[in-house]
C-alpha cells in the first residue's frame, strides 16, 4: 500500500469513525471492496439508493424548470438534453439544481449517462447530502468513498465506479 492509498484509507476511517485492520485493508483493491469493508464495520446491509433517487428527482426538476425536460425523454445520455458549450443553459440548470455540478469536459460528455451524472453530483455534494451519524445504505457509503477519493487524489468524479481499481484504474499508489 502506497502513501496515497494509506492516506485515503485514513480519510475513510476518519470519515466513518471506524478502524480497518491491516489484514482487511490488504484486500481492498476496488471501490466496491472499500464499500464492502466499511459496510461491514458499520453493519449496513441496506442496498437501496434512496439518495440517488432523491438527487435524480432534483435534477429532473431543475431540467423541467430550465425548459430542457422535453429532450430528456429521447435519450439515456446527458448530451441529448443540455449543450456542454451553451453556458446559459448550464447556468440556468445549475441555478435550479442548487447542488454543485462537477465539471464534465469533452472526455465524458457524449457517453455520460444520467446514472453516472447523478452519482457524480451526489459525490460532489456528499458532505451536504449524507449525515455521517445516520448512514443507512451501502449507496451512501459508496458516494462518500467516491467523494473522499476525488478530494484526496483529484481523479475525476466520472471515473469513480464500484468496479474501479484504486491502483490500476484510478492511479492511486
Automatic annotation (TrEMBL):
<protein>
    <submittedName>
        <fullName>Acyl carrier protein</fullName>
    </submittedName>
</protein>
<dbReference type="InterPro" id="IPR036736">
    <property type="entry name" value="ACP-like_sf"/>
</dbReference>
Amino acid at each position: 500500500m502506497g502513501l496515497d492509498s494509506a492516506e485515503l484509507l485514513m480519510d475513510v476511517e476518519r470519515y466513518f469513525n471506524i478502524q480497518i485492520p491491516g489484514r482487511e485493508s490488504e484486500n481492498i483493491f476496488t471501490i466496491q471492496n472499500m464499500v464492502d469493508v466499511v459496510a461491514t464495520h458499520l453493519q449496513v446491509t441496506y442496498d437501496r439508493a434512496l439518495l440517488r433517487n432523491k438527487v435524480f428527482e432534483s435534477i429532473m426538476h431543475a431540467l423541467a424548470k430550465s425548459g430542457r425536460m422535453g429532450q430528456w425523454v429521447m435519450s439515456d445520455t446527458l448530451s441529448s438534453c443540455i449543450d456542454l458549450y451553451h453556458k446559459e443553459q448550464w447556468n440556468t440548470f445549475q441555478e435550479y439544481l442548487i447542488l454543485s455540478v462537477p465539471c464534465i469536459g469533452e472526455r465524458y460528455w457524449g457517453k455520460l449517462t444520467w446514472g453516472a451524472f447523478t452519482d457524480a453530483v451526489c459525490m460532489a455534494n456528499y458532505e451536504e447530502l449524507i449525515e455521517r451519524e445516520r448512514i443507512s445504505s451501502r449507496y451512501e457509503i459508496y458516494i462518500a468513498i467516491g467523494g473522499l477519493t476525488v478530494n484526496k487524489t483529484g481523479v475525476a468524479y466520472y471515473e469513480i465506479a464500484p468496479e474501479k481499481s484504486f491502483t490500476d484504474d484510478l492511479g492511486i499508489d
